[in-house]
Amino acid sequence: MSEFYADSATASLIRSVASGDQPGTVRRAPHLRLLPPPVSKAEVPDAWWPILLRLGLAQQAIGVLLRRADANGTSFQIELFSSGVVDEACLCREIARELELPVVEQLAASQLLMRRSEREMALREHRGVAMALARDKGEHMRLLLSPSRVELTELHRVVQSRPGLGDRLGIVVPTVLRKALLAAASEDISEHARTALYIEQPEHSARQVFAGGQGVVGGAIATSLIFAFWLDASSAWLAVHVLFSLAFLACVMLRLAAAMTATPPQLRPLEPAPAEELPVYSVLVALYREAEIVPQVLAALSRLRWPRSKLEIKLICEEDDAPTLEALTAFRLNPCIEIIRVPKGQPRTKPKALSYALPLCSGEFVTLYDAEDQPHPDQLHEAWQRFRASDDALGCLQAPLVVVPTQKKLLPILFAFEYAGLFRGLLPWLARHQLILPLGGTSNHFRRAALEAVGAWDPFNVTEDADLGLRLARFGYRSETITRPTLEDAPEALFNWGRQRTRWFKGWMQTWLVHMRDPRRLIRETGVARFAVSQVMLIGLVVSSLAYVIFALTLVWIALLVAATGTLGGYHAALLAVDAVNVFVGFTAYLLLGRRVLHPGERTAFWKVVLWTPAYWLAMSIAAWRALWELYRRPHHWEKTHHPLRKHPRR
Length: 651
Hints:
Blueprint: H1 7-18, H2 49-55, H3 59-72, H4 76-83, H5 88-99, E1 103-104, H6 116-123, E2 131-135, E3 141-145, H7 152-161, E4 169-172, H8 174-200, H9 212-231, H10 233-261, E5 281-287, H11 294-302, E6 311-318, H12 322-329, E7 337-342, H13 350-357, E8 365-369, E9 374-375, H14 379-389, E10 394-398, E11 401-403, H15 410-432, E12 444-447, H16 448-453, H17 464-474, E13 478-481, E14 486-488, H18 494-515, H19 519-526, H20 528-565, H21 570-596, H22 606-633
Parallel strand pairs: 1-4, 3-4, 5-6, 5-8, 6-7, 10-13, 11-14
Antiparallel strand pairs: 2-3, 8-12, 9-14, 10-12
Helix pairs in contact: 2-5, 3-4, 6-8, 8-13, 9-10, 10-15, 10-20, 10-21, 15-21, 15-22, 17-18, 18-20, 18-22, 19-20, 20-21, 20-22
């Protein structure tokens, strides 16, 4: 089927259909041209004028499309279909009328004559597939041509020179053809999204949470702890404190190292870039139960500065999420936006939805956003320029996530401070030292080839971002950061925040268990320094969060004991010293890193952060213990974070 996309093959396929040949006996003849043709200066071909006159397209609109075509290095025809100024079905009807060909506005998957590999290739084509063989209700074979891909002037010439072709050709509405292709391929794509990583790279899949050896080691540790506490509870309790302290100290050292060079971020200057050099960029947005904020999502995406003829936005919804789908279909969407309906099936996770949508994309570069995101309009440009200036080993770029509290609520302020330290301080420091980046769940920009080479997202991992960052490093790819941010909303309700944080902790545990199935291989593939950082960023943060509530309870217990007895023994003094030092240095490193990356105008609420960080960490510790239970009870369950409609604009 790949030869059907070559210029000569198009005309030869038309000839074979006209002569009654079966597919596969295509004879080559260099005639009909596919879009895009080489363009030096855009102009409206003569064949288009009768159509434009009947459509009543204003001269001003035609001029705008011509200027876009000239700037983007495309053609008037491409820009017309990409603009949405004319309804696609109306446009196709007028094209069919001009060519005296039938127009197809309804097409069933069963009518298509395509093999599985051909469908997959067709769905990956930008602006849709050029043509497809199909049978009508009378079993008559017809070649359906998509006017968004086949150049009208050449098609007009071929049809006029061969009057007999009219009985075997038809014009199909591009979205109608794509829907039929997707309906035919949906089951295969869904199965691939769910099982591909587990089948091709089982060692990197979280489908099985514990490997056999890990279960044995975990059981041995648990048994040893029980015996240790039974034999000498005091010594065992002190030993546990020391082990927890090591995890705490590792996190402290990492934050302090980043804080030493951290500064408030500045936007990196962009170089002038002609639009004709820009590649196709794919933007994925996973939506689930987001009907309330659909207008907000579309408004944020509309601000992205990228030629619409070279942009494709995939809004990914579960097929049974009727409210969100109804909210989306209520809008007349730009042609660059496609609604992807993910078939029902387990696991019902964001990474599975992304894996389902990836084969339906054609972009050389891929990024993803969450429903509440407001990306900087020039974020795609900065990412593309960084990719272009780097070698192919640069696999991913992480944009900073910035929480802007629109109200003076405490939880969003604490959440915003935490994000500032992570995305403005720690991740850029890790990137500068070419260490492993635990990616954020949104605003990751991927080189498509690198993303596919590592197996894309794991549908069974509930923090697919951290897993993918580590997997990219294991395959020899770098992850770095860019400066243009994505604005996000913080959960305002503690219950909603707790569900989100539980999912994160659970996913980090999953990721650590997956990649520690063979520690020696992990060290060999990443190097000692990267291995050490991965331990701190995954299990170190989890263990330190689990430890915090134990430290806090121990301090309270000792304080009550001293108040009751009036004395402090040597054992209790040792525990008090260990816990007090841990908490103090932990707070110091956390607050120092966060404050150093804040702009002066953002520091007005810093003392609120200082006062409430102990309580915030306690909430995180509770979420970590809950995640440990969730890992045992339902490891692949995705706890949804509710995103309410934003009442105040963000700047």
